[in-house]
Amino acid sequence: MDTSRFHFGAVLTPDGWREDVTISVASDGCIRQLQNGYCGNARRIRGIAIPAMPNVHSHAHQRLMLGLAERAGPGADSFWTWREAMYGFSLRLQPDDLEAVAAQLYLEMLKSGFSAVGEFQYLHHQPDGSAYANPAEMSLRCLAAADAVGLGITMIPTLYAYSGFGGQAPLASQRRFITDADGFLGLFERLSIQVKANSLQRLGIAPHSLRAVTPALLREVLAGIPPAAPVHIHVAEQVKEVNDSIAFSGLRPVETLLREFPLSGRWTAIHATHMTPAETVALAASGAIAGLCPTTEANLGDGIFPAVAYRAAGGALAIGSDSQITVSPAEDLRMLEYSQRLQEHTRNALAGGPNRSTGRTLYEAALAGGAQSICQPMGAIAPGYRCDIAVLDDAHPLLAGRTRDAALDTWIFSGGNTLVKDMVVAGRHLVDDRHHAQEHEIERKFRSALEKFAT
Ligand code: NGQ
Ligand code: ZN
């Protein structure tokens, strides 16, 4: 039985653009069928319907420090000085703060075109490093925030044991993150009970980086969790990390991953910025997904991912908002393409072939890679997929006379978030003409949390 139907003037399907379509949604929130024309009592939503985007990499708490890390420090600024500032904020955050910040962030994600997030959550313990009464407290707060908004979420709790390659002792400022194998498996067990009760929630594992876990520790933990749970790991983001890896083992970080683990579509390599041509081809061939966070990578001065070579080798990709410096699928895809144009002195670097739309190619790649990366049944407007739809405002002046791929390219390269008008998640019409039913309450709590973190 259908529980709802929506009618759109234009829809992007796996078979291309269709006009004048009714989408029927089954009681489980998945699409049952697409029919031509207006059917039954469908709700008419004006605009251009495209699949909503998965956001594969989020650290919700970092939303607190926006605008507070863009001032030069006393010495040379780098990723590593930013990280110290970020740790400082992280040590002050209470569970209520995290829930309030995450709810506002997830609402912004929803309003920008994302319908699900992979939350790479590593604030496990109290500020002094001792366990919460419920060791999953902080991750549960993120799940509650996503539930309040209606956003899909894949909780990806972090395994974090060390501060550098070869199992170096953690820093005092990392005390909220640190778990051993047993601690992590206990956390994972609690979270798996929670996510089973919510059809929009999934669970994965995030070995933080090859700095924070050893291959032996990761193998031990992987043996204790379901074999299909997605695995996300930060890798080769910074030149110093590559150099430290070589100094420790003679191998670069991506080489280490490829040698130590059977990479496959279960794995998402977050950033993978610094790769040799051989690593680039090997990562692509492994089936792993590159989880790119282009605006964060630019903000942190990471470097440029070799996307042209990676795509030429057939590599899968996805996008993430990471530090939340920007929350916008359009802007992250734009930044990804622009980084390649700046590097290669070309245009339409990632279009994938003559006469193809760059925006469409990138959007579809990030839909497929993203859905797989966070194990959510989304990414296409077609029967069997969850009914997760973003609607672009076809009455916006920027879209005058623009249809199909030209409308998508206008959104991605010029319009950004203001063009996203409606959002449907699992067949629920959650954002209606840019408004969400809970937005005032969510914003009120966010403001009072944020005010505590003004310095
Ligand atoms: C993180 N962020 O886990 O939030 C990291 C910083 C680290 C990015 N890598 C910490 N962008 O990598 O050690
Ligand atoms: Zn990250």
Give a structural overview.
The protein is 36% helix and 21% strand. The chain has 14 helices and 18 strands. The strands form three sheets. Strands 1, 2, 3, 4, 5, 15, 16, 17 and 18 form a nine-stranded mixed beta sheet that branches. Strands 6, 7, 8, 9 and 10 form a five-stranded parallel beta sheet that branches. It starts with a strand and ends with a helix. The mean pLDDT is 98. The site of N-carbamimidoyl-L-glutamic acid has 9 residues, from loops.
Summarize this entry quickly:
The protein has 14 helices and 18 strands.
Strand proportion, as a percent range, falls in: 15-25%
Helix content: 25-40%
Average pLDDT level: 98
Count, helices: 14
The total beta strand count reads 18
Radius of gyration: 21 Å
Distance between the termini: 53 Å
- Contiguous low-pLDDT stretches (5 residues minimum) are none
- Class by helix and strand content? alpha/beta
Tell me the overall shape. Answer: globular
Give a quick account of the main beta sheet: strands, pairing sense, barrel closure. Answer: 9 strands, mixed
Oligomer state equals: single chain
- What is bound: which ligands? N-carbamimidoyl-L-glutamic acid, zinc ion
